[in-house]
Amino acid sequence: MKSYYGLIGISFAPMMVSFVSIFRGFFQGLQNMTPSGTSQILEQIGRVIIGVGLAYILLPKGIEYSAGGAAFGAAGGAMIACIYLWIKYIKVRKEMGIKKIKDFFQQNDKLRCYGVQEKRNFLLRKKNNPNRGVPLFCRRSYEEAKKR
């Protein structure tokens, strides 16, 4: 029963670390290791400061609480790294012009592909549709290729 608070403290870490891993993978996929390395340094510093700080603050309540606070330092460090990577992701997303899929298809009529959404696939399967046999191609590119 003495390990209960330690397990509760560490149980938040996997959730935070999974989000940190997503963002690190994004930046590593862009071959930009600076945000990933900086987040690891921030995570370790936060882990030590939060873990030791909570252990020291909770020591008068008992060693069990102190161990729980020290274990929570892992989640706290991951939270700091996640916030840093999220801010960097928002900046990079704006620079690269990454948008949500709905926004992308609403704003870019030229690139509307008929094989992307189910509604468009349904329209292509109608008997009177002249483009019925090309559900995976964009309508414009198919018509341009047809003209050549």
Describe this structure in words.
- The structure is a single chain.
- The protein has 148 residues and is mainly alpha-helical.
- The chain has two domains: 4-98; 102-147, no CATH class.
- The protein is 72% helix and 0% strand.
- The protein has seven helices and no strands.
- The chain has helices spanning 4-10, 13-29, 34-58, 63-96, 101-107, 118-124, 139-147.
- The longest helix is centred in the middle third of the chain and has 34 residues, at 63-96.
- The chain is elongated.
- Mean pLDDT is 79; it is low at 109-116.
Which key terms come to mind for this protein?
148 residues; mainly alpha; 2 domains
The radius of gyration over CA amounts to: 25 Å
Shape: elongated
Class based on secondary structure composition and strand pairing: mainly alpha
Give the helix tally.
7
What is the domain total for the residues?
2
Q: What's the quick description here?
A:
The chain has helices at about 5-10, 15-30, 35-60, 65-95, 100-105, 120-125, 140-145. By secondary structure, the chain is mainly alpha-helical.
Question: Mind sketching the topology for me?
Answer:
Layout: H1 4-10, H2 13-29, H3 34-58, H4 63-96, H5 101-107, H6 118-124, H7 139-147
Helix pairs in contact: 1-4, 2-3, 2-4, 3-4
